[in-house]
Design brief:
three-stranded mixed beta sheet, alpha/beta, 251 residues
């Protein structure tokens, strides 16, 4: 997104009435983040703090995490288990004091797990589409398994399969990560874990942290888990909206 279109989106989000914003959850998110940026520049409150589980490189196909550069003094815990993405992530967020990278997967118990990913050399050379950078997963998602990845029958999957590999990564519970990094409040909580999204979000204590904004990718979740996400949010009195493959929620 160019700076011109980005600015236009911010101005539009700030100018639209709440009733219209409720019909465009992503635009509502832009307003939330823009207000946080204004507050950080002109106010004296606590630093804006984001938790992003499945951060990838914090830039590619991501309309939220880059706001960390716009919100003065913003802090973040960025969880990313794949070494290739960790390098890109640190290059994009070099301030180690403000931006903590946790090189683990979030699971229900501490340990080591096997995860599916694509070969880094194939990604760098362009052999694989650039969007595959964000498709590594701890689960057999559609893209990773080849089922319905590009339609009912994925004729191209055999071209991608030779570049698939399994690697072992450490895993921790979400609360362990929050505790060891001294996270006492969360302003924005993001989950994009290619099928493990409910497993992560299930662990977030909404009563304790109550983020102002939550964004969860649900495109790789089965219907029952999408329902569980919505029920948890609605039970906690969040305003919930769907856009594309994401659920956006606001306190």
């Amino acid at each position: 997104m160019s700076w011109v279109s980005s600015l236009a989106r911010v101005l539009l989000s700030l100018g639209l009435p709440a009733g219209l914003l409720d019909r465009g959850p992503a635009l509502h998110g832009t307003k939330f983040l823009a207000k946080a940026a204004l507050k950080a520049r002109f106010g004296n409150g606590r630093p804006f703090q984001m938790i992003n589980v499945g951060a990838c490189d914090g830039a590619l196909f991501d309309d939220v995490t880059p706001w960390l550069h716009r919100i003065r003094g913003a802090r973040a815990m960025l969880v990313e288990p794949f070494p290739y993405n960790q390098k890109r992530l640190r290059a994009n967020y070099p301030d180690t004091q403000r931006f903590i990278i946790e090189p683990v997967a979030v699971t229900r118990t501490k340990g080591t797990i096997t995860v599916h990913t694509f070969d880094a050399a194939a990604l760098e050379s362009g052999t694989l589409p650039i969007e595959f950078i964000g498709c590594s997963s701890v689960t057999d998602t559609n893209l990773m398994s080849g089922k319905n990845a590009w339609g009912e029958a994925d004729a191209n999957f055999n071209k991608f399969a030779p570049h698939l590999k399994d690697i072992a990564v450490p895993s921790e519970t979400l609360q362990t990560l929050l505790d060891r990094n001294g996270i006492t409040y969360i302003d924005a909580f993001l989950v994009d874990c290619e099928g493990a999204d409910w497993m992560v979000f299930e662990q977030l204590d909404l009563q304790r942290y109550r983020p102002g904004m939550i964004k969860i990718e649900v495109g790789a979740l089965p219907a029952v888990e999408i329902g569980q996400v919505v029920v948890k949010l609605k039970t906690a009195s969040y305003q919930v909206g769907f856009q594309a493959e994401d659920i956006w929620a606001f306190a």
